[in-house]
Amino acid sequence: MKLKKNVGKLDQIIRYVLALGFAVLGIFVSPFFFIGSAVMIFTAYFKFCGLYRLFGINTCKIEE
């Protein structure tokens, strides 16, 4: 099964920045923030967000 892309370029950049922020919080506050960081990296890299699919949101401009 191939994941249909639903995350656009700007959204992808925001997710990478959030992942970096969560990683920093994981170092200084609580290691549980690394879970959020991993989720953000996964969704940005694969350009797929399960919640977006659930709610019918698509920020990706190019259709497959």
Keywords:
3 helices; single chain; mainly alpha; 64 residues
Structure description:
The chain has 3 helices and no strands. The chain has one domain (10-55). The protein is mainly α. The chain is elongated and about 40 Å long. Helix 1 (9-28) packs antiparallel against helix 2. Helices cover 62% and strands 0% of the residues.
Helix content: 55-70%
Radius of gyration: 13 Å
Give me the count of strands: 0
The major β-sheet equals: none
The arrangement of helices and strands along the chain is HHH
Which regions have little confidence, pLDDT < 50, spanning 5+ residues?
none
Number of spatially distinct domains? 1
In brief, what are we looking at here?
The chain is 62% helix and 0% strand. It is mostly helical and 64 residues long. It has one domain.
Strand-helix topology:
Blueprint: H1 9-28, H2 33-46, H3 50-55
